[in-house]
User: Fold Adenine phosphoribosyltransferase from Sphingorhabdus lacus.
Amino acid sequence: MTDNADLAALIRTIPDYPKPGILFRDVSTLLLDGPGFRATIDRLAALVAPDTELIAGIEARGFVVAAGLSYALGLGKLMLRKPGKLPGEKIGADYALEYGTDRIEMHVGHVRPGQKVLLVDDLIATGGTASAGVELIRQGGGKVEQALFIVDLPDLGGATRLRNQGIEVKCLIDFEGD
Assistant:
């Protein structure tokens, strides 16, 4: 695997957002670059376990990554959405934020019992949303054994948190010290 420095160079860093002292890693600039986005999807696709049956993307940028991987691999895409976005019967999982809680949901029956589901998002920081995604897919009967991200902020511990849940985590780019 390449060191992905070419992709890292396409990610904009915004200092002091959303609050002073934070370096926000903005993947939107990577998504704007056609060849960079294509390389990102190709490199992530090469990491996907061969027995994967479904790609789950977390709202909202995770949808972009999941759609690209779903297309590249010929697999379906499961949407993990914020509350109030799904019209049918749904299940949900709550997770902690710095101040308060949030929730993600999915439609009942969109995961077959025992179906192997890959979880993807653009970035993993503390791992709260990703852990809720794993819980939600498992609650729906799916098996989650792998998660892929474009960016990892390893100092925030999210990838380690997922690994402690038995998930193989792979990321293209690490931004240390964030």
Remarks:
- The helical segments are 5-8, 28-32, 34-45, 61-73, 128-139, 158-163.
